[in-house]
Amino acid sequence: MKGTLWLTWRQQRTLILVGAALLAACAVWVAFQRADMMAFIADHHIDTKNCKGWDGDCRGDDAFQLLADTNDAMRTLCTLSAALPVLIGVFWGAPLLGRELESGTWKLALTQGVSLRRWFLTRFTTALGGTLVASAVLAALVVWWWEPVSNMLDGLYWHDGYIFNATGPAAVACAVFGLVAGTAAGLLLRRTVAAMGTTLVVVAGLRVLLNTVRHDWVSPVARISQGDGPRQYIGTAESAGDFGFIDRAGRLVHEPAACGQGEGLPDLKTCMAQKGFTGRFYKVYPTSDFWVFQWIETAIFIGLAAALLALICVVLRRRAVL
To answer: Which of 267, 263, 269, 226 is nearest to 248 (CA)?
Structure first.
């Protein structure tokens, strides 16, 4: 190891080593937690496959006790994975160029016969490699721990922010965006603290925005029950909060209280006949929408990261010419 690679290692080794130690600690902790969880499942003969959904067919209180003992610790890991893009952007991306430009040490590196482009690429690719590994490992740990009790009773579901933001390709793409956003902020602001604050606002703000508009990208599926028959259980799907009745023309009437609420009302059949309703409906986002939402957000994060990276290259090229 020599030249720019050696210098990059010297400057980033603390972050890399600390990050590796934290990942190892998380892996050991998750392994112990998951082993205890699986032992509890085996000892109490819990059929987790039949416990899926709020209406899961579970007997006894053991399954609820299992989730009560697991949920809080699992949320802690999910929070760490979801917060990783912000942490990477603030503490790795923002100082990557910002500290060098603020202190003027980048000029010293260029006097050693190294081009500005090579200096940047060596530093950035090292940070990018660490970002990909850290985010992918944390996301995998979350899935490994959560999968046996996924979408189960009152536990964590695929559409919960804890799970969705901490797993899948979107979690890795968001971490990459955090790194690039922090790098761009450091280059443009040339002040480390200012770049860190800006990165925090941008990355966290984008995540909040995507959480808010996510359901606007896909139309929910209408589940229909004929007459006054029982409605289909929601299972592991996510409710869209839209339900009501169907009239004789097949139109959806968004008036859930038109004939009262709940199942088995004595006058439900009479009320529906009087109002001309032939059935009921409610709308949900099926479990398969998890991947639809994931790939949409992945494309957004990667697209924004590519645009910012192009901006970084343009600014660095102009600076090299000047």
So the answer is: 226
